[in-house]
Design goal:
By secondary structure, the protein is an alpha+beta fold. The protein has a domain of 89 residues: Hotdog Thioesterase (Thiol Ester Dehydrase, Chain A, Roll), CATH 3.10.129. A hairpin with a 2-residue loop joins β5 and β6. Keywords: Lyase. It holds the Pfam family MaoC_dehydratas.
């Protein structure tokens, strides 16, 4: 999944602006994430183990789902040059193999004196919210301040 880059500057943002991506989770995504992070919890990797849990089968790492938010921030809203300051995460429901995760990031607040944006982050599978939270990011400035109209 390589997303087309969209370069937005602080001056391009407005409260309510949103970007979305979708990603269908594969077994190889989960295995790759485990290899990358070292998190080899069998609930993610072993169907035999996971079948005995309340989930009844393998689930994706919660931080794998959260990393899809990072993909939006780094490529779409605000895009290249954005710097994570903080992120809250609320894990609401499991993500399973073959689920399609729809990620939406929306501007909630702009803080001009620091070139920061507070963003709503929501991940859904179908109509169910599986993860939500807020991010605070530093956004590059174009160096041109827009003049507010009267």
């Amino acid at each position: 999944m390589f997303l087309e880059l969209q370069n937005l500057y602080f001056e391009d943002l407005a409260v309510g602006r949103a970007e979305r991506i979708s990603k269908t989770v594969s077994s190889s995504d989960i295995v790759g994430f485990a290899e990358l992070t070292g998190d080899r919890n069998p609930i993610h990797l072993s169907q035999h183990f996971a079948a005995k849990t309340p989930f009844g089968g393998r689930i994706a790492h919660g931080l794998y789902t959260a990393s899809l938010i990072s993909a939006v921030l780094g490529t779409r809203l605000p895009g290249p040059g954005a710097i994570y300051i903080s992120q809250t995460l609320n894990f609401r429901a499991p993500v399973r193999i073959d689920d399609t995760v729809d990620v939406e990031v929306k501007v909630l607040e702009l803080i001009p004196e620091k070139f920061r944006a507070r963003l709503s982050c929501v991940c859904r599978v179908g109509d169910e919210v599986v993860l939500d939270g807020e991010a605070l990011v530093k956004v590059p400035s174009s160096g041109v301040q827009k003049v507010a109209s009267a």
